[in-house]
Specification:
The complex is a heterodimer of chains A (103) and B (182). Chain A is built from three helices and no strands. Chain A is an all-alpha fold and 103 residues long. The longest helix of chain A is centred in the last third of the chain and has 33 residues. The radius of gyration of chain A is 17 Å and the shape is elongated. The longest helix of chain B is centred in the middle third of the chain and has 25 residues. Classes of the chains: A mainly alpha (103), B mainly alpha (182).
Chain lengths: 103, 182
Amino acid sequence: MSNSLDSYLVLSGLLFAVGVFGFLARRNAISMLMSIELMVNAVNLSILAFGAFVAPLRTHAAVIALLVIAVAAAEATVGLAIVIAIFRNKKTPLVDEYDSMRE
Amino acid sequence: MPIGDSIPWTGIRWDDILFVALAAVLLVSAVLVVTLRDIIRCGLALIVSFASLAGIYALLGDPLVAAAQVLVYIGAISVLILFAIMMTQTKNAPTRLVFQTQTLFAGVAAAVIAGVITVTVLATTWPAVGSRLVTATSDVAHKLFGDYVLPFEVVSVLLTAAVVGAVYLARRESARSGEDRP
C-alpha cells in the first residue's frame, strides 16, 4: 500500500476535500485560513508523491515542494495580518458579519 | 540486530503500517480542524496534521522536505495562527454557531471533489515505478541552486515583501495615520 502512487494521491485528494469543506463551511476567518493551509498541504503531498514515484520528476518535486512551502508561509503571514486588521475595525472574526461592502 | 522488511509470520510490511497510521492520524486531525467548536483546539489539531504530514514526507523519501515542513509549518505558521487566534478571541463571540448556513452544500461539494479525485486517480494509469525513490539532499541542493535559482531568489523577495506588507497591515490605525488616539 505504501508502495503505490494511488494511495498517496487518494490521501491527498481526501485532505483537499476536507480543506474545501472547512473553507466553505466555517464562519471564523482564521478557520478558513487553516482550511487553506490544509489544501496547500494536500497539493504539496501530491507533488511529492509524483516526485517519489516518477523517476524524471524526482528532484524537481522536492524543490517545487520547498518553494510551495515558502510561498504558503508568505500567504499565511499576509492572510493573518488582513484578518487582524479587519478584526480591529469590525470587532468580530466571523466572516458573515463582514457586510459593509454590501450596503 | 536489524529488523526485517516486514513483520515476522504475518508478511505485513512496516512501511504499510506506518503509512496507514500516519494517514489515519492525518485525516482524523484534519477533520477535527474543520469541525471542532473551540478554535484553539482547531489550531492544535492543525499542528498534529502538519506533523503527520511531515512523517508521510519522510516515508516518501524526502527527508529535507519533511524537515522543512516541521520547521516552517509547525515552527512558524502554527505559532502565527495560534497568536492570531488569541488576538481575535472576543468574550461575547458566539461559540455555538461555528458553521455557515451553507454547511450542507459545502459537505456535498467536498464529497463530490473527494469522489471525483478518487475515481480519477484510480482510473488513470500513471507512468510510475513500483517503489519509492529516496531523494538525496545534495541532489535537491544542486537543483535548487542550479536550475531553480531564479525562483529561489524570487521567493526570497516575495517573503520580504510579505513580511513588510503584513507588518503594515497589522499595525494600529493610529500609528499609521500619525494621530494620537487613546
